[in-house]
Structure formats: structure tokens, C-alpha cells
Design a protein that fits this description.
333 residues, alpha/beta, Rossmann fold, 14 helices, elongated
Length: 333
């Protein structure tokens, strides 16, 4: 079913981010959001960590596509954990008809050898499997998947991972490998692809996001949106935050308020409690001020932003559905 989103026409959603920002969580929630309302979405993992299985509380995923979740309002999420050796066997069968010979070569460590000599070849294998799922059609000529979400490597190497044509340029000028990489590149660099970044409102993740977006654009790759994860909403009015940052908060007045509210016994207890509370308020105000600066830096990229609140109870299945709903409400899916 069609619906208006910020990414109409995009069928491959690549999700990257600095380690610790919740990249896999966001990718999983995005898959649920995209599948809602009766759509079929494939969630792909390429780093061998079995992060998808963990987040959906499943056994380790084999190298096959299988349904792992039902989306809100109907729709299915399938998952695939890509194994480079199996991808190599598929590649050899597809282009050379050598699957049996390929298994023998695998036992000899040919995949490790090939990817050591040409590191970009491993990326071609896994991105190739992903883009094949994007292009795949059924017997009636309809797309098998409405969208594919790729839980990609971290921000620091996302451009190299996706820029497969450049990575294999020294490996093959002609032939199946070159043709394969060109096919992959044709999907990755097309309007059907968007590379989304996951960040926190902290200096290092935001700077990596800014650098990653700049590198993508320089390489002619499609930068998508920015998912700001684990956002904590301030419970204090802006005027209070401003006063705390400027050091103009009256500890005595705060102590009187605590005592009047029955939260402290006696003047000494109220004063001690007020000083501790003021320390917390100042720290909160400074963090809020820093987060505002990081938001402003992200605005300058000109990319859509989506803020996902910190889940008080941690990330479980219920939390994933909550994040998926937030994404849909903000137009991300």
C-alpha cells in the first residue's frame, strides 16, 4: 500500500552509526515501521554479530530469509544474516556454475584469501546479496519485498562499504566481478537508496555523523535522514535551565521550597538537600544546552531528522514497536 513519507520511492534503507548509538535497534524498528499496514520488508545484517536475533529474542539466524515479526496493522518483517562464505558460493554458482567446487574452495579458506587480497570483495558479496533482494521479483513481475533495511557497518567505514565500484576497480576491469559490482552500484547510487545515520546528542557521535554525511556526498552516495536516538526530554522550564546555567539559582529559596513542601526536616537538612538538588539541576541544564548545540549542528546538514525517546524500560519487543510508531508519526516510514 502507498503512503506519504519522507522517503517515497526509496526501497533500500541503509542504516549506519557510531558504535553504541543503537544502530541495530533503529534498523529493526525502521523495518517494523516500513512493514506496517500490510507491507513485506527484509531486514539484513552483515556484520556477523547476530544482533537482529538478540533484539527480537530469537535463536541465531541461519543464512536464509525467514519471517521474524508481524508489523502493526499487518505486514511482515523477514530477516537475513548474510554469511560471506555462503554469499561467495551463491556468487560462484550464479556466474560460474561452480557451487560444488566453491564448497571445496571454501574449505581451503578461499574466501579469507580472496578478501585479504582484495578487502573490497567481501563488501561486494554482502552488498550484492542485499541489492539482489531489492531487485528480486516474483513470477508475476512484482517486487518480492516492498523495502529492504540494511543494518550496515559503522559510520567510519560506510562510504568504503557502499562504494563497491571503486573498491573492486583494481581487482577486475571486466568480467563477472566488474559486472556484479556495477549492478550493485547501480542500486546503491540510485534514488531507490537512502543511507540513514543513527546518533546521540553527544559531541563524538554527532561529529562522526557530520563527517559521514560529507564523505557520502563527496562519493556521490545518497545521504538519507538522521535518527537521533535515546533522547531525554527536559522536565524543567527553559527559564529555570537558563538560570541554572548562568549560576543565578538561589539555593536559599530552593531550600525554603523543599522545607515548605515537606521534603526536608529542619533548616540544615533543607539546605543540604537544596545544594544536592541544585548540583543535579545545573548538570541537567548544561547537558541540555550542549544537546541544543548538537541539534543545531545536525540541522545544518539539511537532512531530515527523527528524534527517538530513550526507552525507560530498555529495548524489548514492546519498545521496538514504540520506536516504530514514533518513526511513522514523524514521517520516516
Amino acid at each position: 500500500m502507498d503512503r506519504d513519507t519522507d522517503w517515497d520511492g526509496v526501497r533500500l534503507h541503509v542504516v549506519t552509526g557510531k558504535g553504541g548509538t543503537g544502530k541495530t535497534t533503529v534498523a529493526a524498528a525502521l523495518a517494523l515501521a516500513l512493514a506496517s499496514g500490510g507491507r513485506k520488508v527484509l531486514l539484513v545484517e552483515v556484520e556477523g554479530r547476530q544482533g537482529i536475533a538478540q533484539i527480537f529474542d530469537l535463536p541465531p539466524l541461519p543464512y536464509e530469509e525467514r519471517r521474524i515479526a508481524v508489523a502493526p496493522g499487518g505486514g511482515d518483517v523477514y530477516a537475513l544474516a548474510i554469511d560471506p562464505e555462503e554469499a561467495m558460493l551463491e556468487y560462484m554458482e550464479m556466474f560460474y556454475g561452480m557451487r560444488r567446487a566453491g564448497r571445496a574452495l571454501t574449505r581451503m579458506g578461499i574466501v579469507d584469501f580472496a578478501t585479504t587480497v582484495a578487502p573490497g570483495f567481501r563488501d561486494v558479496l554482502v552488498t550484492g546479496k542485499t541489492t539482489e533482494a531489492v531487485r528480486r521479483k516474483d513470477r508475476n513481475g512484482r517486487r518480492v519485498y516492498d523495502a529492504v533495511v540494511l543494518d550496515a557497518p559503522p559510520t567510519g567505514r560506510i562510504t568504503r562499504f557502499l562504494n563497491v565500484t571503486k573498491e573492486v576497480a583494481g581487482l577486475a576491469k571486466v568480467g563477472p566481478i566488474k559486472n556484479h559490482s556495477d549492478l550493485v552500484s547501480g542500486v546503491v547510487k540510485s534514488p531507490e537508496t537512502a543511507v540513514h545515520f543513527v546518533t546521540l546528542l553527544e559531541e563524538m557521535p554527532v561529529q562522526e555523523t557530520l563527517d559521514g554525511i560529507a564523505e557520502l556526498r563527496e562519493a556521490g552516495l545518497p545521504a538519507g535522514g538522521v535518527f537521533v536516538n535515546m533522547v531525554r526530554e527536559s522536565q524543567l522550564p527553559q527559564a529555570v535551565l537558563d538560570t541554572a546555567v548562568k549560576g543565578r539559582f538561589d539555593v536559599g529559596e530552593l531550600a525554603l521550597g523543599l522545607k515548605a513542601a515537606g521534603l526536608a526536616d529542619g533548616a540544615a537538612d533543607a539546605s543540604k538537600a537544596a545544594e544536592a538538588l541544585l548540583e543535579e539541576i545545573v548538570e541537567h541544564a548544561r547537558r541540555t544546552e550542549l544537546e541544543l548545540k548538537e541539534r543545531e549542528a545536525l540541522v545544518e546538514t539539511g537532512t531530515p531528522r527523527y528524534e527517538l525517546n530513550l526507552l525507560a524500560d530498555g529495548v524489548d519487543l514492546a519498545g521496538l514497536y514504540e520506536l516504530a510508531e514514533s518513526m511513522r508519526n514523524q514521517g520516516a516510514a
